[in-house]
Design goal:
The chain is mainly α. Helix content is 62%, strand content 0%. Helix 2 packs across helix 3. The radius of gyration is 16 Å and the shape is globular. The model has no long low-confidence stretch (mean pLDDT 85).
Length: 133
């Protein structure tokens, strides 16, 4: 879910994007905005949901690569959580505006906790809360 021009952002004058990684939410939002009429406020709100969903996708995708082969159930749950978030992020603007990411964040938190324990850690990590722009 990376931007195709991410390595050229500063040269193209997109300093804000160069200093900030949206984990692919920007391109997805741009494609959605091309096909949907929204107010500026709605566009902002949709982007915030996409940004949070893409951050969770990034965290869970990274976790999936670390999941031990001895934990097939955990790997399957990570894949299911990734698929659910990707489906949500690929939805309509109306669906995104109505979306509640709290259950996804809680599920991600539990999955990351279980992965940390499976990898021999204490499981004390928590999913970061989204920060306002």
């Amino acid at each position: 879910h990376r931007c195709a021009v991410h390595h050229q952002l500063a040269g193209r004058g997109l300093r804000g994007c160069a200093a900030y990684d949206c984990h692919g939410a920007g391109p997805r939002a741009t494609r959605l905005f091309d096909t949907t009429r929204l107010t500026d406020r709605q566009r902002h709100e949709v982007f915030l949901v996409l940004r949070d969903a893409h951050e969770l996708l990034w965290l869970l995708s990274g976790a999936a690569t670390l999941c031990p082969a001895a934990e097939p159930a955990l790997a399957a749950e990570l894949a299911d959580a990734i698929a659910a978030l990707d489906a949500l992020a690929g939805g309509s603007a109306a669906a995104l505006l109505a979306a509640d990411l709290a259950p996804h964040r809680a599920a991600a938190d539990q999955l990351l906790h279980r992965l940390r324990v499976a990898l021999g850690g204490s499981g004390a990590t928590r999913v970061p809360q989204p920060q306002a722009l």
